[in-house]
Known about the structure:
The protein has four helices and no strands. It has helices at 22-36, 46-65, 70-77, 81-90.
Amino acid sequence: MTAPDTQLNPARPARERRKQPLSACIRTALERYFADLDGHPPPTNLYELVMDEVEYPLLQAVMHYTRGNQSKAAAILGINRGTLRKRLEKHGLL
């Protein structure tokens, strides 16, 4: 497996790190999403849709960073290993 993604590497020089906080990126994406609805009603499960969209790349990145070590990944995420396994299974990452 290759080195951890540089976006998650705190040793990367500050000038190379992302300038915009994650929350601002999410806000921008949601504003664009609502604008793209073009008058159509939003789905009734928006919370679940957003959580799935965020959770999948989060799990991918953390699993890559830990080189597949579920115990380390669970500790980083602040969840127990069983919960991590369920989330990984849900997203087809096991």
